[in-house]
Amino acid sequence: MRGVTKTFGSVIANDRIDLDIRQGEILSLLGENGSGKTTLMNMLSGIYFPDSGEITVRGQPVTIRSPKDAFDLGIGMIHQHFKLVDVLTASENIVLGLKEKGRLNLREVSARVREICGKYGFSIDPDKKIYDMSVSEKQTVEIVKVLYRGADILILDEPTAVLTPQETDRLFDVLRNMRKDGKSIVIITHKLHEVMAISDRVAVLRKGVFVGEVSTSETDPQKLTDMMVGHAVTLNINRPLVEPRPLRLEVKDLTVLTPEGVRALDQVSFQAFGGEILGVAGISGSGQKELLEAIAGLQTAQPGSHVIYHPPTPDEAIAGAHVPVAPDGEELLGKNPRQIHRIGVSMAFVPEDRLGMGLVGSMGMADNMMLKTYRSGRGPLLNRKPPRALAEKVKQELDVLTPSINTPVRRLSGGNVQKVLVGREIAQEPSVLMTAYAVRGLDINTSYTIYNLLTEEKKKGVAVIFVGEDLDVLLELCDRILVLCAGHVNGIVDGRTATKEEVGLMMTNLRKEAAGV
Amino acid sequence: MSAPVTQHEPAVRIVKRDSIPTWKAWCIRLLAVVLALLLSGLFIFAVTHLNPVAVYQGMFEGAFGSERNTWVTIRDAMMLLCVGVGLAPAFKMRFWNIGAEGQILVGGILTAGLMIHLGYTFSTPILLCIMALASIAAGALWGLIPAIFKARWGTNETLFTLMMNYVAIQLTSYCVALWENPAGSNTVGIINMQTRAGWFPKILGQDCMLNVILVMTLTVGMFLYLKYTKQGYEIAVVGESANTARYAGIKLSRVYIRTMAISGAICGLAGFISVAGAGHTISVDTAGGRGFTAIIVAWLAKFNTFVMILIAFLLAFLEKGAIEIASQFNLNNDASNIITGIILFCIIGSEFFINYKLVFHRRKEAAGK
Questions:
Q1: Per-residue pLDDT for B369 more than 50?
Q2: Which residues of A touch B4 (CB under 8 A)?
Q3: Which helix H or strand E contains B359, and what residues bound it?
Q4: Would you tell me which residues 237-266 of chain B have a C-beta closer than 8 angstroms to some C-beta of chain A?
Q5: B229 vs chain A: nearest CA distance in angstroms?
Q6: pLDDT in tens, A143-182
Q7: B231 contact A CB<8A
Q8: pLDDT at A3 over 70
Q9: Which of A14, A411, B217, B360 is the most buried (most CB within 10 A)?
């Protein structure tokens, strides 16, 4: 790829990028979120068309206008979000869209799928339906789909984001087998240890600009971080121990059903304390969303479930803003967010779906600030003065980049959207603060801003519940980590002593089986 | 291995715009209108060999040529605007109320019925108040039923409101038969022709002045309601995302029901204005498709009621103009409808160019490399 440029509106996603991909190697494309990795690869796989620049495959200048063109050139991409049809089997998904002459012979397809699997060390049942598959299996189907079409340049977009450490190891073995077979592999990632573990070469992007490439053997994580961020950053998060830590939230036998009647949470019990960050680890979709939403009053729980809130005692620093209703604890289940607010519980919730749940995308910062408080004040009219003042304050204190506090938040970048949301939630002086994937999609600097904000809240005596996906961060930020697996609590570990392998193992069912439960 | 690809680069690419200055957006809309006039001119000339300028002149005369024509246009625009204002809160809430037609009719039925039966009992001002309240109640009820079903059982409001239209149309047919005058005509005729009981009084010498006052009050009121009240804020949040609304502690069912009551009530009042302030009769054509046309008014204005005034006038102008040229140039109604269609198509299509821009591939630049 030579001088490839792509702009979206006024944003330059890729600025004159030169990149070589060699046969029989694994190349890591490293960069922070929003640095243009996926955009660059999307141009290679025919999703986007470059504004300028040229692409050469095996010495031939080519024009890639569609994913089909890319397949014809042997380029296949495995996207972060799988593009599979749930009700079809693996084989059916694999041949979908292929224009082969003659009748479709699914048995032959299955045989070829098995052959490909055997060659590279996958394990997959070609006749299994997609909806019965785990995330890891679905990913395998995507990879086989690309190989079935004869691709010899494979692009994987953050393939490990949804995998447990064990599954990641298995995937890496497969990728090494492919390299042996002469395939070229590009993996898009921002996880340094994976880069070190798997790749031969690393190409680094920063803010749409190509920073450089190095052989993996000649570099180390610190050097790569410096290249990625542009200046040296310390990877340490400050984790003070706060005393005292009073009981704030007690979850007992919480069971929540999905609309299909499956148990998303099964008899979940734990306690959360003021002055600590309780991490929640687990493969995505293990019940994290339901857990936070049930506590926030957005999910109905099964009978027998309890979420007991223990109000701060009057001598606590954060007590001033809240009215203790029942000193021995108040049941929160069965109340909606408004009722929870009305009984004096200040609960802050930063949901996973920022623009679909936490904010109103078409409104500006100012109008978003009053989402939970617009009812305050007498009379039928809105009082826009306090939210405006708050918006200005959040904009200033958190460095929110926005043309004005009336610009629709949908137009802001992901990091700024999250700052608006977190800023509002913290401004309500919560006693419980819940965040779901608070740093997903944010660059390192913004992520650290968020970590620091959470730690500040913890120091104030707030009970923080932090649902995360990056185990390194969970282990550095949290005082305790609760591990969810398929709706069960598989254990609660001390964040200061636990190891990544230990937590990773608990995220899968291995530990339960070993314990004979 | 694959064959070398020798396709050319695409000549045009569609790129989403970040944002666009307001003046530029209006320029694009203006260009669309000009383009529409040129296109329809071509059509007129190709089909009828008439001078397009003369045809346009005819349209303008039909709408604004005389004082009477002007007031008829104003009256029709006000009707359309009134229904559009009624639809605005529902559509802003993303509640697809396509039942305005029925809500207008039930408001009209009650107005006509009261006018017939109480015309000799009460004086006109009191009768007008009674009719207004009754039509508001009827329209609100017609809007409430689908809202309650949606809130309780999650029924599809689009189908439900549409079906309610047919119920209202049948009710109207029944009432027309009931109140038939003179017998056998299958129409209600002009109600209280002699006494003018229950008719809108003349204000400043104009029959339709009260229509204008009522509708403009509603227009301003709805603008303020949507923009400055807590309920208006709730409507905006619910419309953007039901999940966000639940997160904010907004009771969805209550907002659905309340907003649809308001939406239906205003449409019902439109029925009252139509019967007491314009037609002085009731028939299945009293709504005359305005319940649907007003959807265009509400959408094109993006629920800004002041912009709706402009669009309501444009549509009323097109309709009146089309009727005029149909008679003046001996074109049939379909030909003038085609012109209306072309103009609307261009205006709605221009929104695409406001949201997206086209980037043309420059051959020279590519060759230079």
A1: no
A2: 60, 62
A3: strand B356-360
A4: 237, 240-241, 243-244, 246-251
A5: 4
A6: 888 888 888 888 888 887 777 777 888 888 888 888 888 8
A7: yes
A8: no
A9: A14
Q: Return the pLDDT at A510.
A: 46
With cut-offs at 50, 70 and 90, classify the pLDDT of residue A282: confident
Instruction: Note if the bond before A50 is cis, omega within 30 degrees.
Output: no
Residues A358, B247: C-beta atoms closer than 8 Å = yes
In sequence order, the 6+-apart residues with CB closer than 8 A to the CB of B61 are: B69, B324
Angle between helices B124-153 and B100-118 (to 10 degrees): 150
Q: Is A49 on the interface with B (CB under 8 A)?
A: yes
Tens digits of per-residue pLDDT, A409-456?
887 877 788 889 988 988 888 888 999 988 877 777 788 888 988 998
Question: All domains of chain A, ordered by start, with CATH?
Answer: 2-229 (3.40.50.300), 247-346+430-515 (3.40.50.300), 357-428 (no CATH)
Look-up: residue for tokens 């010498």? B205
The interface residues of chain B toward chain A in range 297-356, judged by CB-CB distance below 8 A, are: none
- The complex scores an ipTM of 0.76
In chain B, where the domains are located: 74-322
Which of A382, A383, A404, A425 best probes binding to B when mutated, by most B CB atoms within 10 angstroms?
A382
pLDDT 10s digits, B60-97: 888 888 888 888 889 889 999 999 999 999 999 988 98
Q: Is A62 helix (H, G, I), strand (E, B) or coil?
A: strand
- Residues in chain A with CB shorter than 8 Å from the CB of B228 are 381-382
Q: What is the DSSP string of A489-513?
A: EEEEEETTT--HHHHHHHHSTHHHH
Chain centroid to CA A416: 16
The reply to whether B233 touches chain A by the CB within 8 Å rule is: yes
Cα angle: B104, vertex B107, B109; to 5 degrees = 105
Q: Give the integer Cα–Cα distance in Å for A396 and B104.
A: 51
Q: Which residues of B touch A60 (CB under 8 A)?
A: 4-5
In this predicted structure, the answer to whether residue B128 has a pLDDT above a threshold of 70 is yes
The answer as to CATH 3.40.30 being correct for domain B74-322 is no
Q: How far is B217 from chain A (nearest CA, A)?
A: 18
Contacts with B, A 257-286, CB within 8 Å: none
Q: pTM (2 decimals)? A: 0.75
